[in-house]
């Protein structure tokens, strides 16, 4: 029988994520792969690699979804490469929406700092809907890979900040995946049970063909 002390010791070892290097600033001039960007040589790293100033500027919400996401992922913020974290700013004009989407590479925590946002996600096991109207100071978590959305449910602009458990969480918006490319209309109709006229209308709005 394993003693509690030994069990705790091995639990500590198995849960440790100690890194060999202090950091791995992304080197955009070197190849990247499934594990992320290659590390910049320490001699070429500067303090600016660990600073990102873009989240203080409101995004342009004059688009079809009346929303803007300003990411601070490894591609924009090389200092977070390899650290398992990243951030993003979400601006939602009145009536703005971030449609159903997923982050295949990480979980998300959303913090509302202005306005009112209706947010929710759908479980993969039972298609259970978890829905909540969030106000200033509220936070909500969206588990990795699950479909989720945000909608401005107030009459004025809303602002939120999202943190992710990955420097490259990825993003796939369901509407764009279906209607903003050359996926054949007939195939979409077969796999989604949508009417062909509606599919063609959505393709026209989002720029898809086929």
TrEMBL record:
<dbReference type="InterPro" id="IPR006045">
    <property type="entry name" value="Cupin_1"/>
</dbReference>
<keyword id="KW-0732">Signal</keyword>
<feature type="binding site">
    <location>
        <position position="103"/>
    </location>
    <ligand>
        <name>Mn(2+)</name>
    </ligand>
</feature>
<feature type="disulfide bond">
    <location>
        <begin position="24"/>
        <end position="39"/>
    </location>
</feature>
<dbReference type="InterPro" id="IPR011051">
    <property type="entry name" value="RmlC_Cupin_sf"/>
</dbReference>
<dbReference type="InterPro" id="IPR014710">
    <property type="entry name" value="RmlC-like_jellyroll"/>
</dbReference>
<dbReference type="Pfam" id="PF00190">
    <property type="entry name" value="Cupin_1"/>
</dbReference>
<feature type="binding site">
    <location>
        <position position="103"/>
    </location>
    <ligand>
        <name>oxalate</name>
    </ligand>
</feature>
<protein>
    <recommendedName>
        <fullName>Germin-like protein</fullName>
    </recommendedName>
</protein>
<keyword id="KW-0325">Glycoprotein</keyword>
<dbReference type="InterPro" id="IPR019780">
    <property type="entry name" value="Germin_Mn-BS"/>
</dbReference>
<keyword id="KW-0464">Manganese</keyword>
<keyword id="KW-0479">Metal-binding</keyword>
<feature type="signal peptide">
    <location>
        <begin position="1"/>
        <end position="18"/>
    </location>
</feature>
<keyword id="KW-1015">Disulfide bond</keyword>
<dbReference type="InterPro" id="IPR001929">
    <property type="entry name" value="Germin"/>
</dbReference>
<feature type="binding site">
    <location>
        <position position="101"/>
    </location>
    <ligand>
        <name>Mn(2+)</name>
    </ligand>
</feature>
<comment type="similarity">
    <text>Belongs to the germin family.</text>
</comment>
<dbReference type="GO" id="GO:0030145">
    <property type="term" value="F:manganese ion binding"/>
</dbReference>
<feature type="binding site">
    <location>
        <position position="108"/>
    </location>
    <ligand>
        <name>oxalate</name>
    </ligand>
</feature>
<keyword id="KW-0052">Apoplast</keyword>
<feature type="domain" description="Cupin type-1">
    <location>
        <begin position="53"/>
        <end position="200"/>
    </location>
</feature>
<feature type="binding site">
    <location>
        <position position="108"/>
    </location>
    <ligand>
        <name>Mn(2+)</name>
    </ligand>
</feature>
<feature type="binding site">
    <location>
        <position position="148"/>
    </location>
    <ligand>
        <name>Mn(2+)</name>
    </ligand>
</feature>
<keyword id="KW-0964">Secreted</keyword>
<keyword id="KW-0675">Receptor</keyword>
<dbReference type="GO" id="GO:0048046">
    <property type="term" value="C:apoplast"/>
</dbReference>
């Amino acid at each position: 029988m394993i003693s509690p002390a030994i069990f705790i010791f091995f639990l500590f070892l198995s849960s440790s994520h100690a890194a060999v290097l202090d950091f791995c600033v992304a080197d955009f001039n070197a190849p990247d792969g499934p594990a992320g960007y290659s590390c910049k040589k320490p001699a070429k790293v500067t303090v600016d690699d660990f600073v990102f100033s873009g989240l203080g500027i409101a995004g342009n919400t004059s688009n079809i979804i009346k929303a803007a996401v300003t990411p601070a992922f490894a591609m924009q913020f090389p200092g977070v490469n390899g650290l398992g974290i990243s951030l993003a700013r979400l601006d939602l004009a009145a009536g703005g929406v971030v449609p159903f989407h997923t982050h295949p590479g990480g979980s998300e925590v959303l913090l509302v700092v202005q306005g009112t946002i209706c947010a929710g996600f759908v479980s993969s096991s039972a298609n259970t809907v978890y829905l909540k109207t969030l106000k200033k100071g509220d936070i909500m978590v969206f588990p990795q890979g699950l479909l989720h959305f945000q909608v401005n449910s107030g009459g004025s602009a809303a602002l939120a900040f999202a943190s992710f458990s990955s420097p490259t969480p990825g993003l796939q918006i369901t509407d764009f995946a279906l209607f903003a490319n050359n996926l054949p209309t007939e195939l979409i109709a077969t796999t989604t049970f949508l009417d062909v006229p509606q599919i063609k209308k959505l393709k026209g709005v989002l720029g898809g063909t086929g």
